Amino acid sequence: MTWKNILIIALVLVVLYFIWYNSNRTCYYLPKDHNPEKFGKFYWFALHDIVNRIPCPGCRQEAVPMLSFMHDLVNFKIEKPLFDKENFYKHVEEICKLKK
Questions:
Q1: Contact of 73 with 84, CB cutoff 8 Å
Q2: Is 86 in a helix, a strand, or coil?
């Protein structure tokens, strides 16, 4: 996977987020306070839910592991356990290959 594919998928995720945010299909209630311990779970749940609803199977197949990697990257930075270590290290290796 090239960096262009990663960028395209990231842009698709952003567009899908804004479509979801402005739709009335699903109602997520935003937490009142912005304490990371409280709102982190909410936002990650919402993002995972959006990605799992991508109608294109091929796009969803690419997006689900990417979002999982992003989530694990945040967990790694804040020293929380990784959910999918195999997926995390696979993406780290891909990024290292792009750097060469």
A1: no
A2: helix
For residue 73 the two structure tokens come to 């990257």
H-state helical runs in the chain: 3-21, 36-52, 57-77, 85-99
How many structural domains compose the chain? 1
Confidence (pTM): 0.62
Q: Is 28:46 a contact under the CB 8 Å cutoff?
A: yes
Amino acid 11: pLDDT: 66
CA-CA distance, 73 to 67, in Å (whole number)?
10
Residue 54 is part of which domain span? 3-99
φ/ψ region of 92 (left if φ > 0, alpha if ψ in -120 to 50, else beta) reads: alpha
